[in-house]
Amino acid sequence: MNTRLAAKASGLSLTGFLFVIVVVALLAVLGLKIVPTVVEYSAIKKAIANARNTGTTAREIQDSFEKQRSAGYIESVTGKDLEIIKTAEGFDVSVAYEKRIPLVGPASLVIDYVATTGR
């Protein structure tokens, strides 16, 4: 007797595959919009750390940050946005800002960034 057992079908259906592709595409687009803001945030953190180390007064720290800002493609923060606090060890420099990323229509993604040189 030749009996054939029907093989059980397994895998992804066409609609399932399309759904997975749409989700991956949406995540990729979202990632492409978020990554530049994260890169800018890391540039801001480096710039405020360098400005704190090179400046001896609040004005010098702001000027140093402004120089690094123009060289580092930093657009979200200016030297006037820095919060500079004098401490016993020198200065603590911090900045807090909000980045709004438009998504679709009225929907947008808001990311709050806080960078500080506090110890």
TrEMBL record:
It comes from the Bacteria. The chain crosses the membrane at residues 12-32. Keywords: Membrane, Transmembrane, Transmembrane helix. InterPro entries: DUF4845. Pfam families: DUF4845. This is DUF4845 domain-containing protein. The lineage of its organism: Bacteria, Pseudomonadati, Pseudomonadota, Betaproteobacteria, Burkholderiales.
